[in-house]
Write a structure and sequence with these properties.
Distance between the termini: 53 Å
Structural class: alpha+beta
CATH architecture: Orthogonal Bundle
Largest sheet: 3 strands, antiparallel
Oligomer: single chain
Radius of gyration: 18 Å
CATH class: Mainly Alpha
Strand order of the largest sheet: 1-5-2
Number of domains: 1
């Protein structure tokens, strides 16, 4: 018979230390890529992109805006200005090169919170 270890109860995250809160804090500090956020918050990049989409929608109520610096081809300089997706494109539609700078994200107009 195997010995069964009892699992310790896991305390739920509070509103101050959720993944989205951590991402919003990073976005408030300046432009960052989804890869940088992924490393800092310890989440997969695809999951970060879905959080960014949700943050974009939820910021509307506060009057703040999620600013996106569009990705750019390093080879020919093509800028993906009309791209709505948060993920980085696979290759350039002009030169077919895969060397593309990642989009950068930041928050503009976020109201400052006063310390308690």
């Amino acid at each position: 018979m195997k010995s069964v270890r009892k699992k310790k109860p896991v305390a739920p995250r509070t509103a101050q230390n959720t993944a989205r809160h951590a991402i919003m804090t990073l976005l408030g500090e300046g432009p960052v890529s989804a890869k940088d956020i992924s490393v800092a918050v310890h989440l997969p990049e695809k999951e970060v992109c879905s959080h960014l989409e949700h943050i974009r929608r939820s910021l509307h109520a506060t009057g703040a805006v999620l600013e996106v610096t569009p990705p750019e081809c390093r080879s020919c300089g093509f800028v993906f200005a009309k791209r709505d997706r948060m993920t980085s494109p696979g290759k350039c539609p002009v030169c077919r090169n895969e060397a593309i700078n990642d989009p950068l994200f930041s928050i503009r107009g976020l109201p400052e919170h006063e310390p308690d």
